[in-house]
Predict the 3D structure of the following.
Amino acid sequence: MFEQLGLIGCGLMGGSFALALRRAGLVRQIVGYSHSPASTERARQLGVIDVAAHSAQEAAHGADLVLVAVPVAASLSTFQAIRPALGAGALVMDVGSTKCDVIEAARHGLAERLGNFVPAHPIAGKECAGVDHADPHLYTGRQVILTPLPETRLAQTQRANAVWSALGAHVRSMTPESHDSALAAVSHLPHLLAFAFTNGLTAQANSAHFFELAGPGFRDFSRIAAAEPTLWRDVLLANRTQVQLQLDAFRGALADLEALMQAGDATGLGQAIAAASATRSQWTMGTGPVVDATSASTPA
Amino acid sequence: MFEQLGLIGCGLMGGSFALALRRAGLVRQIVGYSHSPASTERARQLGVIDVAAHSAQEAAHGADLVLVAVPVAASLSTFQAIRPALGAGALVMDVGSTKCDVIEAARHGLAERLGNFVPAHPIAGKECAGVDHADPHLYTGRQVILTPLPETRLAQTQRANAVWSALGAHVRSMTPESHDSALAAVSHLPHLLAFAFTNGLTAQANSAHFFELAGPGFRDFSRIAAAEPTLWRDVLLANRTQVQLQLDAFRGALADLEALMQAGDATGLGQAIAAASATRSQWTMGTGPVVDATSASTPA
């Protein structure tokens, strides 16, 4: 049980965490802050937070758990803002889709509190942003990746593990580099492709006609193109090196298919498609065993 | 009410049509044939067809409605096979994802029966193929595109319109060229990209790790990569000219995003992503008004 959650960023991810934590009976009070006063007030109206703070520092003050749920580019300024207010034992986590850049920001921004920071990325989301879409079940059954630093206190990693587990998530630990390369492959690149695909359609004179005829395949393929622009701009910029590697791998595979198609090579094209189809048919969404070195325990 | 449906190709699309037609009480008997004897027998066991024919010609014999639901590359041989068995008044339709090539096949294969052929493309499907996944509701609420030829008898287009409408589909008519360019944009290109994306991942040494961390975004974006290989090989080859145009448009949009990302241009990248996000957020799956020149009537 936590006495107080300091929630910095009352959007979809942060709001869902707050709702889930309260639903699990793991928090007594939630103090929230969003950059936009309207968002903070909306979160209070919806009962996602109990108290609307006027600054990130105020939200963190007195909290034994602080969740930083802001676009990753705002990590440094947020860490700097909350550092003076952090208690010596407060667990600090983020929910960012990239980890190396957030850790770099934490090294600069959290200073003597760095050992209390457990970088976290819940692999969950929706294409609709904002606290109005916050959902206490957003993390249920999803994977949460922890990428603790060498400096991270083991007890804090264990608490982080325990709290996400208590929310029904499956917790894994890995290095931030391993996280960022994998997420570039299976999340950041698909977003980039979906954005490009949508813009490529819109640029054409017949796009209205095209969109009218789009069916269920288009619906699912392009769903992530509706994602929150600022968040994804920041993710792509923060992880651009890994995204570029994945983009190059994709381009190679696309060129292979294109050459087979243009050559009319039915056998080769059929084999290449069959390989993709078999791979995707066999895939099931992972629930991730607990593979980290720490053991789960109930939250302190 | 039709006396007899001759179903050539008892797979997902054909089987679903048979189930829907029977459910609507619009057919007395269904005679089916698949290239694979095991598939034909399975369709009979499941009650999707009443009688298992030993050839396409046998399935078409005596039918007043013939549905050709085969991979588009098999269209010509199928039309040639059934032509001698076709009655003078039998309505013939296909369900192919491309129309220009199927029409070309019909011109050669159906000869004097060409006027009874109404090219049709129901914009519906699943990533799992085969009669075991046939679903009487597959076409409910979906769009069905008819692309009648100048030679097509108006009465047959009206019957085609009526039967699909009776199954709960929304029928539209357009030229085959207009259909093929639009479907290249919103269906064929996304499939090509999803195949390439999946193969680009698989080619990497860490792909098993990547796939483990894939979440809901990956699940939806890549769903169509699991599609039936032969069917999609044929579609991409048949419509390769239009697919190439769409691929070029996509590459241009992707290069724009890549340049902004690599330049670290947060403003420009944010705007480009915001454009995609706004477009996709506003899109809803079309149900397609009846815009063709024929009027709907109950099936003859």
User: Anything to note?
Assistant: The domain at 2-175 of chain A is CATH 3.40.50.720 (Rossmann fold). Chain A has twelve helices and nine strands. The longest strand of chain A covers residues 2-8. Chain A has two domains: 2-175, 179-282.
